[in-house]
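To close the chapter, one final illustration. This time we ask the reader to focus less on the individual chains and more on the assembly as a whole: which components sit near each other, and how the overall shape emerges from the parts.
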Amino acid sequence: MSVDKQSIECTNDKEIIVIKDMNKWYGNFHVLKDINLTVKKGERIVVCGPSGSGKSTMIRCINRLEEFQRGSLVVNDVEMIEDVKNIEAIRREVGMVFQHFNLFPHLTILENLTLGPIWVQKRPKEEAEAIAMKYLERVQIPDQALKYPGQLSGGQQQRVAIARSLCMSPQIMLFDEPTSALDPEMIKEVLDVMVELADEGMTMICVTHEMGFAKKVADRVIFMDAGEIVEENEPNEFFNNPQMDRTQLFLSQILEH
Amino acid sequence: MQAREFKALPDQPAPLSTTGPIAWVKDNLFSSVFNIAVTVIITSALISILPGVLDWLIFSANWSGTSQADCVKDGACWVFIQAWSQQIFYGSYPDGEIWRVNLSLMLLAGVIALSFTLPARLRNKIAVPAYLLLPFVCLLFLDGSNIGLTPVSTDLWGGFSLNVLIAAASIIIAFPFGFLWALGRQSDMPFARSVSVTCIEFFRGTPILALFFMGSVMLPLFFPSDVTVDKLLRVWIILVLFMSSYMAEVFRSGFQAIPQGQYEAANSIGLGYWQKTLLIIFPQVIKIAMPNILATFVMVFKNTVFLLVIAVPEMLQVIMSALSNSNWLGGHAVEGYLFVGFIFWICCFSMSLLATSIEKKLDTSHQN
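The assembled structure is written out below.
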């Protein structure tokens, strides 16, 4: 099947991710149950929930790091099907930032950043390096370009990881607990970059427990438990007036301290 | 309230008693009663044995001469090695053509040096093709018939140069083969996986001697009588397959040490299967597997002496026929075998040093 592109006008109301009745099993374990989620272009969504609730699995399904067994997913008008072309088309539009950074340890920071532009987008090396330096400056570590990931602090590595994704000029950014592996003092420098990105209108889905970040930038907060979306609301309502008892319990647990 | 300024304490040097040579001696040689006893015993054993050994090896040894009659002193008869040196290194390769063997060895050394001196950018583009071409270029020169030189039959190739060249040629070809088998073994495609597993398990589970016999005695029985495949070529193929199976398992252990996150990160920036494998996974696998890759190299290099069982005149075979030569029946076995051992040790030790330097080069975790 070829890449299915419809001619939808590119407005701010464009639905860029449409998930319908997504179900996923690990063997017999039902991890995702009837997930329905629509994300519009430019929307910032924060996903929270206890561990094992399926929040990471859900966003990993969006760029096919995980397969789902039932339901449908359309990203930027391309349907996710068992076809390498479609999968690669979707992955080109979706950037992802991981909990453990996952930088390539054998390459310098600059090489980490230029890899995608050179090999996937087939840009000339000079152009790729110019792009890389532009984004390194945006995350404020251009002076580290020639070092290796092992020489950088966790916060710096995560900012490099964000810059690496941005180099591919994605339409959507996925963040999978980007600050969970960081020292408290480094969380802020990463969140600052993410806030800046959100202010520029990037479509973002962010799995995080940083409730301050959620309040500040999210258009919608999604709470998941046991593989389901339990509650979904704009942040003010979500934090001040949660509708479900499970959400109330969760919020009382994490906001207590 | 005004906060007080926090000042970190300056670093101080470690106490002298914990660094330096005296501390080393104390820690490593005289740290406990048991350690002191072992140090004393080993030192006294060395003192009592070493003079005799050195005397036999060097001081009372016979260094010059041309025949057995020149070995008059008590020590080792190195004249034996000297007299047979050309055979030991070049086998029966014709005198006038020995430059072709030397050229092949120099090409090998040149390519190895090239891969160490080239800047990283050019290394993949130049050194890799150079390695892969090397066995075939050497083959052209050594055989000679296709490039207008005097043809030299493979029966005449021999000596230590043969050990080196056939081991190098096997290693070079087995490297990509082993990598492909390792990829196949962890592939999702049932066909690729079953072929790889079968090959790996067959060649890894069969002794190399059995494979050599099979190659030299049995294989020709399956060919039509008018087709002859050169014996050395058969041996080469067997060594390549044998080594590929070991390399595949070495690579597999490397693959398993790569965190899943590396694959995910490569996928998420949209790299295809081969880009991901060659740009992200392969360089890291090489680094992790380096000590085992070296161990496999050394193993194959040493295994080349087994070629003597199918009468390929490699180094040990030459020594053994020299020992039974009627002019040299004076019992020079110790000298001969010591020499073989020494040469192999030198080579394997240099490979070990080489591998250590490669490991250092590849280590980017703490580079400053």
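The CA atoms of residues 97 and 175 of chain A lie 5 Å apart. Chain A touches chain B through 28 residues (CB under 8 Å). With these observations in hand, you are ready for the problems at the end of the chapter.
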